[in-house]
Amino acid sequence: ETGVTQSPTHLIKTRGQQVTLRCSSQSGHNTVSWYQQALGQGPQFIFQYYREEENGRGNFPPRFSGLQFPNYSSELNVNALELDDSALYLCASSIPGQGVNIYGYTFGSGTRLTVV
Amino acid sequence: GEDVEQSLFLSVREGDSSVINCTYTDSSSTYLYWYKQEPGAGLQLLTYIFSNMDMKQDQRLTVLLNKKDKHLSLRIADTQTGDSAIYFCAERPDYKLSFGAGTTVTVRA
Hints:
The complex is a heterodimer of chains A (116) and B (109).
Chain A: E1 5-7, E2 10-13, E3 19-24, E4 31-37, E5 44-50, E6 53-57, E7 64-68, E8 74-78, E9 87-94, E10 106-107, E11 111-115
Parallel strand pairs in A: 2-11
Antiparallel strand pairs in A: 1-3, 3-8, 4-5, 4-9, 5-6, 7-8, 9-10, 9-11
Chain B: E1 5-6, E2 9-13, E3 18-23, E4 31-37, E5 43-50, E6 55-58, E7 61-66, E8 71-76, E9 85-92, E10 98-99, E11 103-108
Parallel strand pairs in B: 2-11
Antiparallel strand pairs in B: 1-3, 3-8, 4-5, 4-9, 6-7, 7-8, 9-10, 9-11
């Protein structure tokens, strides 16, 4: 059983550019959530995808968008990058769809995004 | 700001016990979690406690829950150098996790 994998592990982008981050969920997990962790802070919820649809969103602007694919993998897209978008982006998968999973989520190792 | 609050730093001597404290806000949280994050890594689930429990023990880890005060603590017995990390308390009132800012635990020889 593989865990959650994210790619790339690091990348550097210029302010105003667009970026796509990718996540493969743990086998059998059909729900994917994305979190942003700024330096020195706890992770902040961006949004969650279930059955290829967004079913919950945190306090992030529309330039943060996502996709989930039939194989449950997911992408996070950020347009018009700002310096404050520099952070560790964590993907987490879980089961079942919206129900409570006592194990919470399985997190990937994250993508470190630096915006210059 | 964070709805879940934690002290930011803890320094402990190797072999001693570590106690990390957390206060949360949402009494409807069914489960409360402790995650560990090592440098450059993602989050590792350490343990969880169901909201109708007062205590849960898992090897060197003991979780205490005071639901009346919305206070959660994590005790690590016989702290080792490998326990040096950031520890996050998280509540889950709905479909998402709400994290504290994390407690950086430094284990000194």
